[in-house]
């Protein structure tokens, strides 16, 4: 039996975490067993890599390689077994974040990203990706009220503009998979958009 793999993307402060709890509840109400996870992270090794990559100074290529190393362990240890067990895997960020942040934000070329994605994922892709999109200045204002910035969140607005462009490019390349959600509106209005997509993709 094969489960569903759904990912959630957007620049920091877009409101992913706020919505994912409702999305998990929506699938559970249908009787699905949900595995809620995140990247970088989700397994003990990948959480260790997360702590390094979000806090220790490093160059952009090292950052990219650690993101994909964490992803490989996450896939092998958590995502693939959960899918094999028929679970609905809800993943807060996946490979689109590498293309947006390390590709768009840091400026690393697709000739580095594309082979890593092929290699590490070996064909495993989310069937649906919600891209929570909003202007970087609005996301920064939300973050400012919420928590202290880590090494990546501390980047300037132009970095997040480029990351947003990276998500847009991914959405354009895979329009069936990536659904853009207007995340600039109030949480209940964001949820209404998400729920409409869920009802259309997964009718009762
Ligand atoms: N639609 C919304 N309107 C206003 N504020 C919001 C909205 N959604 C979330 N917030 C607030 O913005 C902050 C960031 O939200 P959240 O943590 O859900 O974002 P995120 O996308 O998961 O961020 P990150 O990727 O950095 O973890 C929180 O304080 C949250 O309460
Ligand atoms: C998977 C992935 C993540 N990032 C960045 C994006 C965020 O700044 C952090 C994760 O923090 P969050 O609060 O859990 O959203 O990591 C990245 O740069 N590249 C990636 O592949």
TrEMBL record:
Pfam families: Thymidylate_kin (PF02223). SUPFAM superfamilies: P-loop containing nucleoside triphosphate hydrolases (SSF52540). PROSITE patterns: THYMIDYLATE_KINASE (PS01331). ATP binds at residues 10-17. Residues 8-190 form the Thymidylate kinase-like domain. InterPro entries: P-loop_NTPase, Thymidylate_kin-like_dom, Thymidylate_kin_CS, Thymidylate_kinase. Its EC number is 2.7.4.9. Keywords: ATP-binding, Kinase, Nucleotide biosynthesis, Nucleotide-binding, Transferase. One of its GO terms (molecular function) is dTMP kinase activity. It comes from the Bacteria. It catalyses: dTMP + ATP = dTDP + ADP. HAMAP family: Thymidylate_kinase. Belongs to the thymidylate kinase family. Phosphorylation of dTMP to form dTDP in both de novo and salvage pathways of dTTP synthesis. This is Thymidylate kinase.
